[in-house]
Amino acid sequence: MPHVRVLSTGGTIASTAGPNGATPGKSGTELVDAVPELEDSATVDVESVCDELSFHLSMANVRSMLEGVEQAAADGVDGVVVTHGTDTMEESAYFLDLVLEESVPVVFTGAQRPADAPGADGPANLLAAVQTAADERFESGVYVAFADQIHAARWVTKARSSRPDAYASPDSGPVAELTVDGLALTREPTSESVSLPAVEPTARVEVHTTGVGVDSRALERAREDGVDGIVLAASGIGNTTPEIGDAVGDLVDSGLPVVVATRCFEGGVAARYGGPGGGQTLRDHGAIPAGNLPPWKARIKLMLVLSSDDGPDARAAFKRQRGGASE
Fold first, then answer.
1. Under the GO molecular function aspect, what terms does this record hold (predicted)?
2. Catalytically active residues, by annotation
């Protein structure tokens, strides 16, 4: 029987209703005990990392998740499941996918409905996650198991704010789907991210969004405030207002790295348009294209690169990703 460790971090899956809204209160052991079918798939043990809603998590909490996975791998487990809130799950999963060196599958899961709500989806998601972590075809990499689908951390995003089928991988599709006959693979399960050093993410990186009539004042304040890097959530295939476009040139000239991602749900950036704020002009200014990496994941990657003394430079890191930028 495979050995799977569950690392609990709180989130809706561990929450129940209260006078101040749903709050985490159920332990990881309680979550596991509520799904007796887990015994058919694996021997499961549980460790608590934290007990937070995911919009409260810090990078220190995410580092603790990494340390928990590293310890589980050292203990010889066959797979790890992380129960996590859905709001920022894809960011924590992507962080681990970038830095994890151990050859052990890590599967994140959670719930859209609290544990005491009618039709709570946590138990089914937890069962799918344990089955995935215990599956011998999943040898390494980081995944999200949700609503009978298994997604790679590199591609997954929270597509729906409250529906049980919260997650999608718009540019790739899921890695596997849970059927009546078990897990059916749609492609080879493996890490699809570049590897970066597992450093303490000390760099301060902000995400700024363009839109109709948005000027450059927020970017100028960020530079004055001493940020280490900027990710632009640009419109379309990577364009901004003229004011932001001009500011990007000044930011890059001052030594501040700027990564351009798209705010769109699907697709990536491309250097199609010239002129003020156009994607080609931004690249001419020295901005780094993020390919089809969404802004919040581009922020995680840029934080790691800028926090490392001996890691790759930002342009090289973004250029190496599959489906990413090219010069």
1. asparaginase activity
2. 12, 86
